[in-house]
Amino acid sequence: MIETNPLIALAAYALAIVSAALLLRVVPKIARHLQHSGESRYASIDGLRGYLAFGVFVHHAVITWIFLRTGEFGFPPSNFYSMIGQGSVALFFMITGFLFWNRLLTQGRQHDWLAFGISRVFRLYPLYLPLMLIVFVTVFHLQNWELKEPGSALFKQILAWLTFDRPDINQYPQTGMLISNVTWTLAYEVFFYLALPLAGMVFIYRGNWIHVVLCLIGIYALYQVVGWEHSLKKHFIASFLGGIAAAYWIRRPALVAWSRTPLAGIIALLALVIAFTAFNRAFKTGPLFLLSLFFVIVASGNSLFGALKPRSIRWLGEISYSTYLLHGFVLWLMVQRLPLLLNLDAREANVYLPLIAICTCLLILISSLSFLYIELPGMAAGKKVLLWIRSRQKGDKQLPEKVAR
Fold it and tell me: Which UniProt keywords apply (predicted)?
């Protein structure tokens, strides 16, 4: 059975890695980008991202298989296939917590909050907006371009989607399933970004008790405001703590030295295996502890016996946001719509598995193109906007001096 056979996941990963390796050979721009980016200080985390994003795809591929056969969406019966999605998301949250909390610890009060805010907007939206447009166009195409709701309702739906909520569009049922509802995690990311300066005031900058109280109230208010629309769950937010713990862990040379030993690599892999086989939900104390142990070792620079170092894996890490955001729509298109056009029965394993193989190759190709031609230009545009704002600020400061002269 597909939903319980882990060899299918291994085959999908192998196909994704081979696809990435072939792209590295035939697309010089990809090789140049990797060469230009060089070895990141956290190269192991860069490699980990690729495994995680593709793991979410595998998770949703199994869920889609179950849906096609039963008509119901639900978690896979296999702990492994349930955790390969949930556990990957938890580790993504840890990566976010680690990278930005570590930056706060390093830079302290010199942290550039303006650059941080602009970079986050231009990291999330350049790819998300085209995907959102595709979803809206798809819905209206499926409904023969018939407007079933008043314009005011449609406008509210657009605003909700812009904030990563997924209400049904124009009465199309379960619209979010067109993209496997992946945008729910972006709401948690946004909450973390907004709460970060307040948390920094409490735990790093350490102002007086009045500042601490006000910041804690602010964090609670943000939780309520963001949660009012997205129903934030505290045990999901707890995932970020594993990354924050890693930011302190890497500041202890003795811990880092131990984390880079073969023994630590074995312990990390053992923790991951136990988390992915003994539990069917990631956001609980036991699996979160095991995943955090795995993560602090990887964050310390352990490449897990070289598994995180190959150039193909690093490329999968580079395109991980595209892979994560786009895989749901590619999956829906390939295994739910295409079989209808070709008169195929995707409920048959000998039909579904080849479709997933094609979907895997196509996803890596599309994600690579979207990274090169949407994500990278988007990040570059963010830097230009920051420079423009800085120049305007500098000009505004110089103007009073010229007037005084």
Answer: Acyltransferase, Transferase
Please report, for residues 6, 49, 179, the alpha-carbon distance to residue 72 in angstroms, rounded to integers and kept in the order given.
22, 30, 16
Question: How far is it, in rounded angstroms, from Cα 143 to Cα 395?
Answer: 52
Distance CA 11, CA 381 (A): 38
The model's pLDDT over 144-173, given as tens digits with 9 standing for 90+, comes to 999 999 999 999 999 999 999 999 999 999
Q: d(Cα 353, Cα 12) in Å, to the nearest integer?
A: 10
Closest CA to 90 of 213, 240, 255, 277: 240
Q: Which of 335, 361, 272, 252 is nearest to 67 (CA)?
A: 335
Residue type, 58: V
Summarised one tens digit per residue, pLDDT across range 378-402 is: 999 999 999 999 998 887 666 565 5
First and final CA of the chain: distance in angstroms? Answer: 81
Among the listed residues 95, 88, 403, the one whose alpha carbon sits nearest the alpha carbon of residue 240: 95
Q: How many CB atoms lie within 10 A of CB 198?
A: 20
Three-class DSSP category at 279? coil
Question: What b/e readout covers 154-192, taking b as 16+ CB neighbours within 10 angstroms?
Answer: beebeeebeebbbeebbebeebbbbbbebbbbbbbbbbb
